[in-house]
Design a protein that fits this description.
Helix 2 packs across helix 3 (about 40-55). The protein has helices spanning about 10-20, 30-35, 40-55, 70-80, 85-90, 95-105, and strands at about 55-60, 65-70, 110-115, 120-124. The longest helix is centred in the middle third of the chain and has 13 residues, at about 40-55. The relative contact order is 0.09. The protein is globular and about 40 Å long. By secondary structure, the protein is of the alpha+beta class.
Length: about 120
């Protein structure tokens, strides 16, 4: 996470903090986000509308609540295309888990790492 001294564009920080909140709760409304961060509803609404217009979020027509949109998937796909599975898994601590298990005498002959809908297998 970035140091607050490094953040130059506060509105961008807010938008990204909102996107990150969807990793904790997949469906959110304006009020929930506003109360969570302590921001004005108008600020949250404007950010959510912008993210929706750029397809980073989708809005349920019945409830008015938001969920992650297709552009988040596109970013994830680009990440997967540009990084090896071992590098991504290393960031998640998966590789270290397998290394510890292997060193402690655990017999792991095959590992599977799940990312979204993709499963990548490799022999350990």
């Amino acid at each position: 996470m970035a140091d607050n001294n490094e953040i130059k564009v506060k509105s961008l920080q807010k938008a990204l903090e909102i996107l990150n909140l969807f990793t904790v709760k997949p469906v959110l409304g304006v009020t929930e986000v506003s109360e969570y961060f302590g921001w004005y509803k108008s600020t949250v609404h404007n950010i959510l509308c912008t993210l929706k217009s750029m397809e980073y979020l989708e809005q349920d027509e019945e409830t008015g609540k938001y969920r992650l949109g297709i552009q988040v998937f596109n970013l994830s796909k680009a990440l997967g295309d540009n990084y090896s599975i071992t590098k991504i898994a290393g960031h998640a601590g998966v590789i270290k888990y397998y290394q510890r298990k292997s060193l402690s005498g655990g017999s792991i002959s095959r590992g599977s790492i799940v990312f979204g809908c993709n499963v990548s297998s490799r022999i350990c």
